[in-house]
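Same chain as my last thread, 264 residues:
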Amino acid sequence: MSSLRAVVEQLSPAADGFVIDAPEEWSQGRTLYGGMTAALAYEAVKRTHGELAALRSAQFSFIGPATGRLRFTAALLRRGRSSTVIAADCFNEEGPAARALFVFGATRESKVAHEFLQRPEVAAAEACPSFRKEGGAAPRGFWNNFETRLAGGHRLLDKSAARAEFAVWTRFLDTGGADPTTALLAIADCLPPAAMVVFPQPAPISTITWGVDIAHVPSSADGWRLLWSGSEHAGEGYSLQNMAMWSEAGELIAVGRQAVAIFA
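reply #2:
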Protein backbone atom coordinates (compact mmCIF):
# COMPACT_ATOMS: atom_id res chain seq x y z
CA MET A 1 0.00 0.00 0.00
CA SER A 2 1.36 3.44 -0.96
CA SER A 3 1.94 6.22 1.55
CA LEU A 4 -0.31 9.28 1.53
CA ARG A 5 2.52 11.36 0.09
CA ALA A 6 3.21 8.85 -2.68
CA VAL A 7 -0.43 8.92 -3.75
CA VAL A 8 -0.61 12.73 -3.72
CA GLU A 9 2.57 12.95 -5.77
CA GLN A 10 0.80 11.09 -8.57
CA LEU A 11 -1.10 14.34 -9.23
CA SER A 12 0.54 15.57 -12.44
CA PRO A 13 0.45 18.93 -14.26
CA ALA A 14 -1.84 19.16 -17.28
CA ALA A 15 -2.69 21.94 -19.73
CA ASP A 16 -5.44 23.41 -17.57
CA GLY A 17 -4.72 22.01 -14.12
CA PHE A 18 -3.65 18.66 -12.71
CA VAL A 19 -4.67 15.07 -13.44
CA ILE A 20 -4.58 11.75 -11.60
CA ASP A 21 -6.10 8.33 -12.03
CA ALA A 22 -8.33 7.80 -9.00
CA PRO A 23 -6.23 5.53 -6.73
CA GLU A 24 -8.11 2.28 -6.14
CA GLU A 25 -6.76 1.87 -2.60
CA TRP A 26 -8.54 5.11 -1.66
CA SER A 27 -11.91 4.09 -3.06
CA GLN A 28 -15.22 4.36 -1.21
CA GLY A 29 -17.66 2.16 -3.04
CA ARG A 30 -17.80 3.39 -6.64
CA THR A 31 -16.08 6.72 -5.96
CA LEU A 32 -12.86 8.14 -4.57
CA TYR A 33 -13.05 8.71 -0.81
CA GLY A 34 -14.22 12.29 -0.16
CA GLY A 35 -11.30 13.17 2.10
CA MET A 36 -8.83 12.21 -0.64
CA THR A 37 -10.80 14.24 -3.20
CA ALA A 38 -10.55 17.20 -0.81
CA ALA A 39 -6.83 16.62 -0.24
CA LEU A 40 -6.12 16.47 -3.99
CA ALA A 41 -8.15 19.64 -4.57
CA TYR A 42 -6.07 21.39 -1.91
CA GLU A 43 -2.85 20.16 -3.53
CA ALA A 44 -4.03 21.53 -6.90
CA VAL A 45 -4.70 24.90 -5.27
CA LYS A 46 -1.34 24.97 -3.52
CA ARG A 47 0.57 24.06 -6.68
CA THR A 48 -1.33 26.55 -8.84
CA HIS A 49 -1.14 29.58 -6.57
CA GLY A 50 2.16 29.10 -4.77
CA GLU A 51 2.80 30.68 -1.39
CA LEU A 52 -0.41 30.98 0.62
CA ALA A 53 -1.29 31.76 4.22
CA ALA A 54 -2.63 29.02 6.50
CA LEU A 55 -5.83 27.29 5.43
CA ARG A 56 -8.64 28.48 7.70
CA SER A 57 -11.79 27.03 6.17
CA ALA A 58 -12.94 24.83 3.31
CA GLN A 59 -16.29 23.74 1.91
CA PHE A 60 -16.88 20.79 -0.39
CA SER A 61 -19.83 19.71 -2.51
CA PHE A 62 -19.65 16.16 -3.83
CA ILE A 63 -21.50 16.27 -7.13
CA GLY A 64 -20.97 12.83 -8.64
CA PRO A 65 -18.71 9.76 -8.41
CA ALA A 66 -15.00 10.66 -8.62
CA THR A 67 -13.82 7.76 -10.75
CA GLY A 68 -11.33 7.15 -13.54
CA ARG A 69 -9.14 9.95 -14.82
CA LEU A 70 -9.66 12.99 -12.60
CA ARG A 71 -8.81 16.59 -13.49
CA PHE A 72 -8.44 19.33 -10.87
CA THR A 73 -8.49 23.05 -11.60
CA ALA A 74 -8.08 26.04 -9.28
CA ALA A 75 -9.22 29.65 -9.74
CA LEU A 76 -8.42 32.69 -7.60
CA LEU A 77 -11.62 34.46 -6.52
CA ARG A 78 -10.18 37.15 -4.25
CA ARG A 79 -6.88 38.12 -2.69
CA GLY A 80 -7.22 40.64 0.12
CA ARG A 81 -4.72 42.07 2.58
CA SER A 82 -5.00 39.12 4.95
CA SER A 83 -7.21 36.52 3.25
CA THR A 84 -7.33 34.69 -0.07
CA VAL A 85 -10.31 32.78 -1.48
CA ILE A 86 -9.73 30.11 -4.13
CA ALA A 87 -12.20 27.77 -5.83
CA ALA A 88 -11.28 24.31 -7.05
CA ASP A 89 -13.15 21.86 -9.24
CA CYS A 90 -12.75 18.13 -9.85
CA PHE A 91 -13.91 16.61 -13.14
CA ASN A 92 -13.93 13.14 -14.60
CA GLU A 93 -14.77 12.07 -18.14
CA GLU A 94 -18.48 12.39 -17.42
CA GLY A 95 -18.36 15.92 -16.01
CA PRO A 96 -18.13 17.62 -12.58
CA ALA A 97 -17.37 15.35 -9.63
CA ALA A 98 -16.73 17.85 -6.81
CA ARG A 99 -16.44 21.58 -6.13
CA ALA A 100 -14.44 23.17 -3.32
CA LEU A 101 -13.91 26.59 -1.80
CA PHE A 102 -10.77 27.31 0.23
CA VAL A 103 -10.17 30.32 2.48
CA PHE A 104 -6.60 31.12 3.51
CA GLY A 105 -5.87 33.69 6.22
CA ALA A 106 -2.75 35.27 7.62
CA THR A 107 -2.09 35.06 11.35
CA ARG A 108 -2.94 38.29 13.19
CA GLU A 109 -2.44 39.53 16.73
CA SER A 110 -5.68 39.44 18.69
CA LYS A 111 -6.86 40.24 22.21
CA VAL A 112 -9.50 37.52 21.92
CA ALA A 113 -8.44 33.94 22.62
CA HIS A 114 -10.53 31.13 24.10
CA GLU A 115 -11.35 27.46 23.61
CA PHE A 116 -14.71 26.30 24.93
CA LEU A 117 -15.05 23.11 22.89
CA GLN A 118 -13.48 20.50 25.12
CA ARG A 119 -12.13 17.17 23.97
CA PRO A 120 -14.13 14.20 25.30
CA GLU A 121 -12.61 12.44 28.30
CA VAL A 122 -11.38 9.19 26.81
CA ALA A 123 -8.68 6.59 27.39
CA ALA A 124 -5.44 6.67 25.42
CA ALA A 125 -5.56 5.06 21.97
CA GLU A 126 -3.48 2.07 23.07
CA ALA A 127 -6.10 1.19 25.70
CA CYS A 128 -9.07 1.30 23.31
CA PRO A 129 -10.46 -1.58 21.22
CA SER A 130 -10.46 -1.58 17.44
CA PHE A 131 -13.28 0.38 15.82
CA ARG A 132 -13.44 -1.76 12.70
CA LYS A 133 -11.93 -4.81 11.03
CA GLU A 134 -8.31 -4.23 10.07
CA GLY A 135 -5.61 -6.03 8.12
CA GLY A 136 -6.54 -9.09 6.09
CA ALA A 137 -10.04 -9.24 7.58
CA ALA A 138 -10.97 -5.77 6.33
CA PRO A 139 -12.90 -5.16 3.11
CA ARG A 140 -11.06 -3.28 0.38
CA GLY A 141 -11.20 0.51 0.39
CA PHE A 142 -9.77 3.71 1.79
CA TRP A 143 -10.21 2.66 5.44
CA ASN A 144 -7.27 0.31 5.08
CA ASN A 145 -5.01 3.38 5.08
CA PHE A 146 -5.95 4.11 8.71
CA GLU A 147 -5.80 2.53 12.14
CA THR A 148 -8.87 3.20 14.28
CA ARG A 149 -9.67 2.69 17.99
CA LEU A 150 -13.11 3.21 19.53
CA ALA A 151 -12.70 5.70 22.41
CA GLY A 152 -16.32 6.60 23.11
CA GLY A 153 -19.86 6.07 21.84
CA HIS A 154 -20.82 3.07 19.77
CA ARG A 155 -19.84 1.01 16.76
CA LEU A 156 -22.03 0.89 13.67
CA LEU A 157 -25.38 -0.96 13.68
CA ASP A 158 -25.71 -0.89 17.46
CA LYS A 159 -29.40 -1.24 18.30
CA SER A 160 -28.70 -0.50 21.97
CA ALA A 161 -27.26 2.97 21.28
CA ALA A 162 -29.16 5.88 22.80
CA ARG A 163 -27.35 8.43 20.60
CA ALA A 164 -25.82 8.26 17.14
CA GLU A 165 -22.29 9.37 17.95
CA PHE A 166 -18.76 8.09 18.48
CA ALA A 167 -15.23 9.23 19.28
CA VAL A 168 -12.49 7.32 17.49
CA TRP A 169 -8.70 7.55 17.76
CA THR A 170 -7.44 7.51 14.19
CA ARG A 171 -4.04 7.69 12.52
CA PHE A 172 -2.51 7.05 9.10
CA LEU A 173 -0.63 3.81 8.63
CA ASP A 174 1.88 5.64 6.41
CA THR A 175 1.92 9.36 5.66
CA GLY A 176 5.30 9.29 3.96
CA GLY A 177 5.95 12.79 5.29
CA ALA A 178 2.90 14.31 3.58
CA ASP A 179 2.03 17.98 3.95
CA PRO A 180 0.20 18.34 7.32
CA THR A 181 -2.68 20.34 5.83
CA THR A 182 -3.16 17.81 3.03
CA ALA A 183 -3.15 15.06 5.67
CA LEU A 184 -5.64 16.96 7.84
CA LEU A 185 -8.16 17.02 4.98
CA ALA A 186 -7.47 13.38 4.13
CA ILE A 187 -8.16 12.14 7.67
CA ALA A 188 -10.88 14.52 8.91
CA ASP A 189 -13.65 12.83 6.93
CA CYS A 190 -12.55 9.21 7.27
CA LEU A 191 -15.20 8.01 9.73
CA PRO A 192 -18.61 6.81 8.50
CA PRO A 193 -21.61 9.04 9.22
CA ALA A 194 -22.58 8.90 12.88
CA ALA A 195 -26.15 8.05 11.89
CA MET A 196 -24.87 4.59 10.91
CA VAL A 197 -24.64 3.77 14.62
CA VAL A 198 -28.43 3.35 14.64
CA PHE A 199 -28.87 1.85 11.17
CA PRO A 200 -31.07 -1.28 11.46
CA GLN A 201 -28.94 -3.00 8.80
CA PRO A 202 -26.05 -2.15 6.44
CA ALA A 203 -27.03 0.36 3.77
CA PRO A 204 -25.34 2.77 1.34
CA ILE A 205 -24.56 6.39 2.22
CA SER A 206 -23.34 9.36 0.18
CA THR A 207 -21.84 12.60 1.50
CA ILE A 208 -23.51 15.64 -0.07
CA THR A 209 -21.64 18.54 1.51
CA TRP A 210 -18.80 18.87 4.00
CA GLY A 211 -17.49 22.00 5.67
CA VAL A 212 -14.33 22.07 7.78
CA ASP A 213 -13.02 25.01 9.83
CA ILE A 214 -9.44 24.74 11.01
CA ALA A 215 -8.26 25.90 14.43
CA HIS A 216 -4.71 24.58 14.26
CA VAL A 217 -2.64 22.59 11.75
CA PRO A 218 -0.27 20.14 13.50
CA SER A 219 3.39 20.35 12.54
CA SER A 220 3.36 16.70 11.42
CA ALA A 221 0.87 14.46 9.63
CA ASP A 222 1.78 11.54 11.91
CA GLY A 223 0.29 10.60 15.27
CA TRP A 224 -3.15 9.86 16.67
CA ARG A 225 -6.11 12.19 16.12
CA LEU A 226 -9.33 11.94 18.12
CA LEU A 227 -12.23 12.23 15.70
CA TRP A 228 -15.72 12.83 17.10
CA SER A 229 -18.94 12.79 15.14
CA GLY A 230 -22.55 13.11 16.26
CA SER A 231 -25.76 13.05 14.24
CA GLU A 232 -28.13 15.86 15.24
CA HIS A 233 -31.01 14.98 12.95
CA ALA A 234 -31.96 12.21 10.56
CA GLY A 235 -35.09 11.95 8.46
CA GLU A 236 -36.45 11.83 4.92
CA GLY A 237 -33.31 10.01 3.80
CA TYR A 238 -30.71 12.50 5.09
CA SER A 239 -28.65 13.05 8.23
CA LEU A 240 -27.08 16.25 9.57
CA GLN A 241 -24.02 15.92 11.78
CA ASN A 242 -21.33 17.85 13.63
CA MET A 243 -17.69 16.75 13.72
CA ALA A 244 -14.50 17.70 15.57
CA MET A 245 -10.86 16.62 15.73
CA TRP A 246 -8.25 16.96 18.48
CA SER A 247 -4.58 16.09 18.90
CA GLU A 248 -3.32 13.60 21.48
CA ALA A 249 -2.38 16.59 23.65
CA GLY A 250 -6.00 17.81 23.62
CA GLU A 251 -5.50 20.69 21.20
CA LEU A 252 -8.46 21.41 18.92
CA ILE A 253 -7.46 20.89 15.28
CA ALA A 254 -10.70 21.37 13.36
CA VAL A 255 -14.49 21.31 13.50
CA GLY A 256 -16.85 20.32 10.72
CA ARG A 257 -20.39 19.86 9.58
CA GLN A 258 -21.78 17.42 7.07
CA ALA A 259 -24.98 16.57 5.21
CA VAL A 260 -25.25 12.94 4.19
CA ALA A 261 -27.76 11.03 2.06
CA ILE A 262 -28.66 7.74 3.73
CA PHE A 263 -30.41 4.82 2.07
CA ALA A 264 -31.54 2.88 5.14
